[in-house]
Batch of 4 targets.
Target 1
Amino acid sequence: MRIWALCATLLATSTVTAAPNPLRRFDSAGAGFIDDAMALREDGNAVAFITTDGATTATLHLADIVGSEAKVPGAPPDATALHWLSPGRVLVVRGGEGGSTAQLFTASGADKAKLGPFGQLTLANVDGKRAIVTYTRSDKHGVEHTVVAYSPETLKPLKRRSWREDSEGQIKQGVTVLKPLWWAGGYTVLAALRAGEFDKARDMRRPDRYARLDSFSGKLLDENEVKDILAFTQVGLLRRDAPNQPVIAHYSDDHRRLLFTDGIDQYDVKMPRDIWKYDPNSLQWQTLDDKRAAVSLTVDPVNPDAVNRKKAEADEIDLVEVDRQGHAVRPLLRLAGEGRRATWKIAGNRLLLLRKGKGFDRGGVALEVYDLSSEPSVAKP
């Protein structure tokens, strides 16, 4: 009871901040709520989102940041992801017991062509061109992994490859076998482990080798000996739970450091404030390209420092950009949290932020678009 009373006192004395003005703001306009599936077009000039009652009806919104907004009825109320394929064309992914499916939508409505069922879907480069890639794992007759690449223009298949594990959980690559570990590059790269060969000259077995394969052709992209088996195992566990992510942001075991696992390397990321001031549950990140990633944390209003001062801190969102080569950190934006959780996506030097509903895990109450191309913006007291 005393702890709750203290929290209430601190929150009551917190400083209110004014956030930078968004370029555009969207709300549900009384049509239920804004669902979690949202997308910012690659050039940052248009957004796609869904308003729904969560059960029976849903509307797809295709809106220019500066300009018109098309409202397309008949969207699925169980959409899980949206992907811009080109200006005016959005792929809507929905879940289901038998797997996910995807359907193309335009301002005119839904297209007849569909993809699926599949396990996961993403956009990636295949043979140097943009493609839709699906991944499906089947356990019916042993473990089988299937990847399929589709044309974004026609939704017709371009490439397909299946990898079947043997009874020992290994796959064949040429005349040798490897143990699949995780997927990368939009499911176009398979990371695997090859058992070390026996070195007769030294009368010893060489260390295991980490290999990367082209998931469609099976071609070996590169291969290196695993030097630190303990560190490699830890990376493998992280990537098993977060597949197909070039960068994974996470706390150290003692929660005193923020770390990036980038490929199989790991390094520290320094946020604008002491790490213990943030709410660990607010951690979000996105890989932007081969050189950059973005990460955000939200200040915990009743962090230890605030408790000691008996004055709550504003729940500000700190968004930064991280140089993946030099590991330097550049502040991008500081926003007022407004007492709500938030999720976001970045494209075309713009941020699309969903303000979540209070007390509800699904959906939110508003979408906001911010410019990231200018000098870092901060909330002003």
Target 2
Amino acid sequence: MFAVDTLKLGIDTDTRRATFRTYLYCNCELKRLVRWSKEKVGRAPPVTRVHSMTLPTAADQAFIDGLVKAQGFVPVP
């Protein structure tokens, strides 16, 4: 079998990061916009971080309504 140098493959030094935007609803009303990320560096376990939790704007509601309509549903008034 061949010896594999994990440092050359980037296994121990690579960084993987994903950012997300989540909408929180309560009683069919958009209450909060949460921005968070998940990051994994090398062989360490993934770390989740919440970056902000803000009140939604009219633009956020319009964005959600557009997604709902595009999927064939009727937006909640």
Target 3
Amino acid sequence: MKNYQLNNYFENIDIATVNPAHYVIATNEMIHRGLIVAERLKLTDINEASEVF
């Protein structure tokens, strides 16, 4: 997936319905490619992340 495709996909993720693990992976890929600046998320922290949803 090209950067612009990933960025478009990420911006259109429906946080209310997406699997939290999928969101973590997509977020980490955005960070890895330098498309967003943030701390990498850990898959082991999914329980904490799902409280946000």
Target 4
Amino acid sequence: MPILTATIAWLKALIGEETHDQRGFAISSETLLWIIGIVLIVGIVINVLNGYIQGLLAQLG
């Protein structure tokens, strides 16, 4: 659930639901680390699935 909570908080910040300072769009370090972590996890899952599918296709041929 923490990943979902962080994602929702990031989306709220992205659409401007929270206050902004004079610098414009600001993102916290924690939010940035969550985004990087989520992207890395998605990339790993995609690569694992791709490898699995490639292995199945190699068995067919």
